[in-house]
Amino acid sequence: MNILLTGGAGYIGSHTFIALREAGFEPVILDNFANSHPVVLERLERITGRPVTLERGDVLDTPWVEAVLRRHQPAGVVHFAGDKAVGESVANPLKYFHNNIGGAVSLLRAMAAVFADGSAPALPTLVFSSSATVYGDPASVPITEDFPRSHTNPYGHSKLVIEDMLSALRVASPAWRIGVLRYFNPAGAHPSGLIGEDPADIPNNLMPYVTQVAVGQRPHVNVFGGDYPTPDGTGVRDYIHVQDLAAGHVAALQALLTKGESFTVNLGTGRGVSVLEAVRAVEKASGRLVPYVIAPRRAGDVAQCYADPSLAKRLLGWEAKHTLEQMCADAWRWQSGNPNGYRG
Ligand code: NAD
Ligand code: UFG
Asked: What radius of gyration do the chain's Cα atoms show?
């Protein structure tokens, strides 16, 4: 059973590729390598022991995406492709509206066209990468899926608009089976140490920044804010192992394909971890000191954000299994074995 992964060469897509293969699916990657490196394909072949099918191109190119769908006849599509840097989205909002919202529209139109003309027998089945960012500044924690949604930057806005588009599509065309996954904070890497997160520039996210400090590429971590109303004054997040996230996609696809009911679920652990706890966990995993300085708060950050993951357990039979220690050990194995990521 083929599954198309748009953005499948990226951080979460590449881990999901392996999990899908292990579960007996045949994933096909569609990617333009805007934020990934073709070397990942060789690594995926090494880990899974079989060739990887790649469709290299842009999800914005609707006729080409239609041709890809006709060629591979996927039973489902996972839509990872998009841009994800919050700061960049503030500086260049049109890039985000174009690639994220435009990319989703393009993919959905291609799926609708192929379904309408009968050239793909499967019902249109989609898993979408949404984000906890759609909860804005939550009034309380843990966060359940019925919390009000808002946005504080164009990246978050793009996710919210896509979620709304998917709801409208379900109303208009009940044949669509759609799973919206709201990821909390993905971290860690495949236990082989062969694939992991490979930020093109200075990492925006905490975990890759901390491991780069541990490996000696950066002098210290800037802890954005030491005066939040949290136990140690630093920001609290729900870090989830990318392997758990990958398993969540397999569970989501299986649920859509067997039960046919659409859903929106949080993918998180339910456990809040502070910046200082994360720093200490990487120190322990790496055996290195991780110096830090308390810096001013980062604009747009919230004090606490962690999931109530019980709906995903109820609907998908999925729950996160990895600990923070495993996440840091795997992130460290990847970072120390590949200090320059896929660029050698
Ligand atoms: P990533 O940048 O590693 O992967 C995205 C992939 O999409 C890249 O390989 C990139 O080359 C590709 N891509 C981008 N635009 C494309 C286009 N127009 N056509 C074809 N390919 C294109 O990001 P990731 O961390 O793997 O995130 C995957 C998805 O999950 C994104 O939609 C992101 O917004 C969402 N998400 C990520 C996080 C996170 O912290 N990593 C959190 C919540 C949600
Ligand atoms: N932080 C630092 N120093 C850094 C980087 C981050 O102290 O160098 C702190 C932040 O202030 C925050 C925590 O570490 O308290 C986590 O920050 P990240 O940037 O790693 O993650 P965010 O929670 O801000 O955002 C991430 C993704 C978003 C996504 C969101 C929810 O970047 O795209 O998770 O899923 F929307």
From this structure: 19
